Amino acid sequence: MMPRLGAEYPIEIAVTSKPIADYQTDDYFELDLPVAPAVMVGEEIVVEGSAVSEEKVEAAIRRHLGMPEAAAKRKTFMRKLFGG
Description:
Radius of gyration: 15 Å
Order of helices and strands: HHHEEHH
Strand content: 5-15%
Number of strands: 2
């Protein structure tokens, strides 16, 4: 999802991956960052501690870039089946 959105919108994507113990330290909590797994767009925490849909991330990116909301995607059979 992230490579496609990075190619579609003029944004920089940074992925941070650490052992879970690193996210549970006092030093990490002092940074006031979200609980992993998380997705942030700019300063906005889109989701923390769970999975997120591509549509929700895309909407946050569009808000961050000052773009209008994307038209709602039609729910196809496969999207309904797999929760997309």
